[in-house]
Amino acid sequence: MGAPALRARPGRRGGPGASWLAGGLLVLALLGCDEQKAVGPTLVYKGPNMESTNVLELFSDSARLQIRLTAPLEQRYENGDVIYTKGVAVTFYAKDKSVVNTLTARYGKLEQAKNLFTMRGDVRVANVPEQQKLFTEELFYDRNKQLIYTDSAMFVRVETLTERLTGYGLKANQNFSSYRITKPEGVFAIDQSVAP
To answer: Per DSSP, which regions of 62-162 are E strands?
Structure first.
């Protein structure tokens, strides 16, 4: 007779304590996962809380329309600020509901805490009754003070029916019926025969 043959039992590996050892390691691994803490800075979302498209907002006082705002995209943030990244158009109305002036820009931002609009990119203001136009690249509109102004270093151009004024810096009332250029550069008469 020869030596007894070793036979492996199907479905079982190792000795009798191998299954206990594997189960214990699994439990330790799971417990170890619970104790691990995230390493690194906590990320805080600072983007908009809400986005709206094709926006139309009406501002009134005592049921009288004062301001109409339209924008293709509006983004509202947690602190109350509103950003118009794809342009904004604002129309101001008189008591008789006629249009006093319009303001357009490629970008707009309303800082809610200051009640201050910042307009940038091809900013245009037009006073309809006076037929005056303002062109600049950045403009501020303070709703509390009802004041339109630019930085003193910002180039501005004002056109009326008879003249074109250029300079740096501008302060005007909300209706753009009264304004002052801080550093005027030139006044050019417009030839009425070639004016559009």
So the answer is: 64-76, 82-84, 88-93, 99-105, 107-111, 116-127, 132-142, 147-149, 155-159
Instruction: Find the length of the chain.
Output: 196
Residues 97-151: tens digit of each pLDDT: 899 999 999 999 999 999 999 999 999 999 988 899 999 999 999 989 989 999 9
Instruction: Read off the DSSP letter of residue 28.
Output: H
- Gyration radius (Cα) of the chain, Å: 34
Query: Cα–Cα distance between 7 and 5 in angstroms, integer?
Result: 6
Instruction: Give me the domains of the chain, ranges plus CATH numbers.
Output: 67-189 (2.60.450.10)
Q: Bridge-partner residues for 132, per DSSP?
A: 127
